[in-house]
Automatic annotation (TrEMBL):
Gene: menB
UniProt pathway annotation: Quinol/quinone metabolism; menaquinone biosynthesis; Quinol/quinone metabolism; 1,4-dihydroxy-2-naphthoate biosynthesis; 1,4-dihydroxy-2-naphthoate from chorismate: step 6/7
NCBIfam families from the UniProt entry: menB (TIGR01929), PRK07396.1 (NF005637)
This protein's name: 1,4-dihydroxy-2-naphthoyl-CoA synthase
Organism whose genome encodes this protein: Chromatium okenii
Family, as annotated: Belongs to the enoyl-CoA hydratase/isomerase family. MenB subfamily.
Class of the enzyme per the UniProt entry, highest EC level: lyase
Length: 270
């Protein structure tokens, strides 16, 4: 992996290799819990990977073998969110969730150890999850006075079914990797020592496929759940593809050349 020297992140790492970006939450002393700064840096890193034409697939992971992420840092939880350095309270992880969901490249959660609370929702939001055999999953919200009724509830129900999703939230149990696989919460489970090799193999396989097909498919999976925002995402791909056609370009050219557009030259296909 190459370290990104341009960034001066405190809470995360950004690495890249072979058209893969690897974004790592680096707060192992708190099981990779996030604070507002962590989330701000993650948003910046995902933005970077999104815009980099050399990157096809993104991995999200946690430093060390004990945790992927344990959710919001409870030590700095104030009365209306998680406090930053100047005392402003945030729930900016919700913005990060939307970003991971809508950025047009596959995002793979690489989970060793705990994916708990808001950290569990982060892996859920990722397109695929590769789990090590020591991974443990669960929500804690009702135990610690919190909940995620957005994607945390709705996407969970779509992923594992309504009954199981309610069990996960209502009982706050933890599930091991085999149980997570059985309920469709993860894509595969591998020995801890093989976690990164296997994850990279999945990423390489996706990178050999058509980026446009993957892009449109990702937005298609969102379209039926995300209402007009989902349709906007899917339709944006249609617009971008239309821009690449001679028919789309005729409209732009005619405007720039101050003439009437000639759309008659294009077929009206059945
Ligand atoms: C993650 C888990 C299950 C790990 O257990 P274990 O036994 O392996 O470790 P331990 O001893 O609990 O944790 C090690 C150190 O990490 C800190 C602990 O306090 C401990 O610190 P020291 O005693 O060594 O000083 N730590 C762990 N998680 C932390 C956290 N989230 N914030 C701050 N410090 C944390 C176990 O630690 C656990 O259950 N952690 C809490 C999980 C949790 O409840 N997360 C918040 C859920 S709410 C949320 O994330 C959220 C939301 O619901 C809606 C919007 C946004 C966020």
């Amino acid at each position: 992996w190459q370290t990104d020297k341009a960034s001066d992140y405190q809470d995360i790492y950004y690495h890249s290799a072979e058209h893969i970006a690897k974004i790592t939450i680096n707060r192992p002393e708190v099981r990779n819990a996030f604070r507002p700064q962590t989330v701000r840096e993650l948003i910046d890193a995902f933005h970077r990977a999104h815009l980099d034409p050399d990157i096809g697939v993104i991995i999200l992971t946690g430093a060390g073998e004990l945790a992927f992420c344990s959710g919001g840092d409870q030590r700095i939880r104030g009365e209306a969110g998680y406090q930053d350095d100047i005392g402003v309270e945030h729930l900016n992880v919700l913005e990060l969730q939307r970003q991971i969901r809508t950025l047009p490249k596959p995002v793979v959660a690489m989970v060793a150890g705990y994916a708990i609370g808001g950290g569990h929702v982060l892996h859920l939001i990722c397109d695929l999850t590769i789990a090590a055999d020591n991974a443990r999953f669960g929500q804690t919200g009702p135990k610690v006075g919190s909940f995620d009724g957005g994607f945390g509830a709705g996407l969970m129900a779509r992923t594992v079914g309504l009954k199981k999703a309610k069990e996960i939230w209502f009982l706050c149990r933890q599930y091991d990797a085999a149980e997570a696989l059985a309920m469709g919460l993860v894509n595969t489970v591998v020995p801890l020592a093989e976690l990164e090799t296997e994850t990279v193999a999945w990423c390489r396989q996706m990178n050999r496929l058509s980026p446009t097909a993957l892009r449109v498919l990702k937005s298609s999976f969102n379209a039926d759940t995300d209402g007009l925002a989902g349709i906007q995402e899917l339709a944006g791909n249609a617009t971008a593809l239309f821009y690449t056609t001679a028919e789309g370009q005729e409209g732009r050219n005619a405007f720039l050349e101050k003439r009437a557009p000639d759309f008659q030259q294009f077929p009206r296909r059945p």
